[in-house]
Amino acid sequence: MKRLFSILAITGIMAFGTANATTIANTSAATAVVTTAQADDITDGETLGFHQELKKRFIEGGAGFMGIVLLCLILGLAIAIERIIFLNLSTTNTKKLTQNVEDALSSGGVEAAKEVCRNTKGPIASIYYQGLDRTDEGIEAAEKAVVAYGGVQMGQLEKNVSWISLFIALAPMLGFMGTVIGMIQAFDKIEAAGDMQPSLVAGGIKVALLTTVFGLVVAIILQIFYNYIIAKIDSIVNDMEDASITLMDLLIRHKK
Fold it and tell me: In this predicted model, what pLDDT tens digit does every residue of 150-164 receive, in sequence order?
């Protein structure tokens, strides 16, 4: 529930910023004639700023497909940021935790070691706790508990990551769809005019290419976040596997 609230909060913040951008875009669209007239007055030596150019191209791309592509970016980034925060909070100093558990086992027994795990955040501490909690049933029971709970923790780490990959695939596909529709509109204008004039098709082709560009940009941005998240998950999983083996060794030595 807390993770869902985090996603909704991040989405709300980003949506608020997008709403402001949409308001600006609507204002710009309402004054399109004035903007076009001003653009005609710009000399070859003058260039627009990056944000102005980006806003201009976004408006030219059309609110339909460009808005959907932007929504993919917002949702993908919201999930990516939530995952990054969760994974960073799940990172544990495994060597320190193992040493503390070993010291607690030597001095206070299993209950002291369980208390150390309860006071430590992260999936590795949770796995340690589950293994220690079943030491009375034997080493095999503790090992099964560690393996089973390790799978549960891995599922928690990978939660919602598939949605990011969906948006990575969806954004360029929407861009390509916008390209195809823009080309169809361009050929419809040629058919209606009965003549092949560059001015008839230039606008449609430009809109088509803009949707493709923005779809690819969104996919590239989300792909970077996705690869970072996957690498972080792999690192934590490797630590979990090493820690599980170490815990079994500790329990065997403690039983002796």
Answer: 888 888 899 889 999
Angle between helices 123-133 and 139-157 (to 10 degrees): 160
pTM of the model as a whole: 0.72
User: Residues 141, 250: contact at Cβ < 8 Å?
Assistant: no
User: Do the domain assignments include residue 122?
Assistant: yes
Distance between the two ends of the chain, CA-based, in angstroms?
43
The answer as to whether 8 is a domain residue is no
| Number of structural domains the chain divides into | 1
Using a 10 angstrom Cβ sphere, with 0-12 exposed, 13-18 middle and 19 or more buried, the burial of residue 43 is exposed
Identity of residue 154 = M
In a domain, 233, yes or no: no
Tell me, yes or no, whether 186 lies in a domain.
no
Q: Fill in the DSSP letter of residue 135.
A: G
Measure Cα distances from 132 to 117, 119, 120, 122, 152 in Å: 9, 14, 14, 16, 17
